[in-house]
Amino acid sequence: MTPPAGFSAVSRRGHYGRAHNVSEVLPERGHRTGGREVVASSRSVSVKDVAAAAGVSLGTVSNVLNRPDRVSASTRQRVQAAMAELGFVRNESARQLRAGTSRTLAYVMLDAGNPFFTDVALGVESAAEEQGLTVMLCNSANREARERAHVELLEQQRVQGVLVTPVDPHAAFLDHLAARGTPVVIVDRTRDDEAFCSVAVDDVLGGRLAVEHLIDLGHERVAFVGGPVSIGQVRDRLRGAREAWADAGRPEEDLVVLETDQLVVPEGREAGARLAGLAARRRPTAAFCANDLLALGLLQHAISTGRSVPEDLAIVGYDDIEFAAAAAVPLTSVRQPRHLLGRTAAELVLSEASDADHRHQQVLFTPELVARASTTGR
Q1: In this predicted structure, what is the pLDDT of residue 45?
Q2: In whole angstroms, what is the distance from residue 135 CA to residue 84 CA?
Q3: In this prediction, what percent of the chain has a pLDDT beyond 90?
């Protein structure tokens, strides 16, 4: 079966020690190792071959593969040495067929081009690796049809659980997936119910932090750059910005909303051109961007057109990706705990997969504003 475009895998690879005593060789062409001839087979090396080479039972080899704590260290070392010497590779497909599940988690991310989501994926992988699991990464590219196709294939692969940053967290196919027994955790999104575990950041608070920072610096006209507003995070960040603006008693029209089609660098540059085209008396002196990629694009436009940051235009981003601090003018940003988001999501989905008494949790992390030169000038 050929997976949809956007599939990739992040794997753990085991390492076994050198062979000490291999008592049986296989009848094919050979090479010499440790003074003895060991033969590489033209057929797949089986568990029976490993058991014979190590001088143990089939059950012992099975325990080494699946329940190593039940085998003494010396026997385990002997079996692992035989596996390494014979070139044994376990048949994971057969194991999955017997068990009805795989040793794989999957993360369906919204946009693989955004470093925020790849950082979340690293957090997922760190938790999975500790459990001896692999992580399959899928990119929906912000398209619900593609997201659904990934989810359907993942269910067919019997993955242990699906982590997803969905286009629509209330999509019916997510409910159907969970109802058929696949654990699902919503990442960087929330739902109105408690039908799933979810892990997110308080984006309303994040929007407030960004605009309150600009108000404290004395800015009287601020732009919000972001979109489309159909994305839940964008709506929440804009809501927080508006709340902070209203609480400060500022006129509603002095918070200028510039909606973008995507959360990408070119859209930030285009928003910069739109800002520059406004009449001087209406032109904002600061901008809060819905993510760092937009903020970096806006910063690029400002520098390329001779505007000084933050003297002519102060800029705040969101996510605090690695490139924010490394920008030509280090970028003030609202930090999200990206790795912790992914790690917590993975721990929740593994809990649901293994614990019959699991109860869904909705984890909401608190964002933090990191002030840098793009607003403070230092």
Answers
A1: 82
A2: 24
A3: 74
Taking each continuous run of H as one helix and of E as one strand, the counts in the chain are: 14, 15
Residues 6+ apart with CB under 8 A from 18: 34, 81, 84
- Name all domains of the chain by residue range, CATH numbers in brackets: 22-90 (1.10.260.40), 104-201+339-365 (3.40.50.2300), 203-337+369-376 (3.40.50.2300)
Average pLDDT of the residues of the chain: 87
Q: What per-residue confidence (pLDDT) applies to 94?
A: 52
pLDDT confidence band for 101 (50 / 70 / 90): low
Contact 367, 201 (CB under 8 A): yes
Helices marked H in the chain: 47-54, 58-66, 73-86, 92-99, 115-130, 144-156, 172-179, 203-216, 232-247, 265-276, 292-304, 322-325, 338-354, 373-376
pTM of structure: 0.75
* Six-digit token string for 204: 């309303």
